């Protein structure tokens, strides 16, 4: 028999940590290779961690609601075919992480370390709800990190889970605390629990607004030709292909074409450099009743309008069924959001960090416009662009928007093939 360690995988290009939202196994459970061990939450997606081995779960190193860096040990598994000498390094890893196993709830917590200054959203929310100074709570998680269970135990006992270490936290890693007291419920209010996906969305949006200096601009485009072309094809297309030919597919294609001409919009801020992405992978926002997902159409510039329409349909269906994979969600380089699908005519999107921009496609509305000194009724649409002002200035962003506008306004039956 041999002890093997399961570590926190990297669930995305820019993901550096993950939070164990739920264990799907317990010590003593037998698992096969690739069986799901736990659900993990990142700022990108909720995913399952598969087992790398067939064997028996020996110890859960990480606690639920605990946030760990990529590569950190989360559990130990006993496999067949190894020698007992392999157990020594595994035990060493377990000692280094100093977990609080379920079988020993009274075990002393790990020594406080700089890592204890980082709290999961669940810990911060609980602390705010109960008016708790997290500096008074000792953690039983990895490296002394405070978990949700530690806070609950503090609330129930009115004292720290274990004696608080005397050593002061390093000045370089101050403890994070809510900037203001959380609101409290009043009589008649309804409290809605914040689930893991909503927490991840909140964290991602705060990160984007905190790190990225947003700027915004809008242009108006005449989509009359687009509307006529799509409406003439939609019924035949649906009958032959089995899915809808949406206006949004045309917009995604128009944006992908414009990004080829203005690739700086397809980039990422990286501190001392800007990384201009070679692939044009369009993230699309898909809303369900309670959540927002951002799956990705890979190599959108190389796809036909039919191919884009198919991927939009498939990704939206997977999002609403809760079946999006990490691959579906990763690799996006620019986001296009169909805010017009629910009637919006003007909006300012929050950039999908670490991308450089997001385009909101608003509702197509019939309006009187002046053409050749005459009034005509046209199908008009607002295109709203939010940009990372570290990477982009108004000049290049304006030229990009003008190109998207041109691509849309020149869509006709004669010059815009679907296939």
Automatic annotation (TrEMBL):
CDD domains: lipoyl_domain. Its EC number is 2.3.1.-. Residues 81-90 have a biased composition (Acidic residues). Keywords: Acyltransferase, Lipoyl, Transferase. Its cofactor is (R)-lipoate. Residues 118-155 form the Peripheral subunit-binding (PSBD) domain. Residues 99-115, 161-179 have a biased composition (Low complexity). It comes from the Bacteria. Pfam families: 2-oxoacid_dh, Biotin_lipoyl, E3_binding. Belongs to the 2-oxoacid dehydrogenase family. This is Dihydrolipoamide acetyltransferase component of pyruvate dehydrogenase complex. It comes from Listeria newyorkensis.
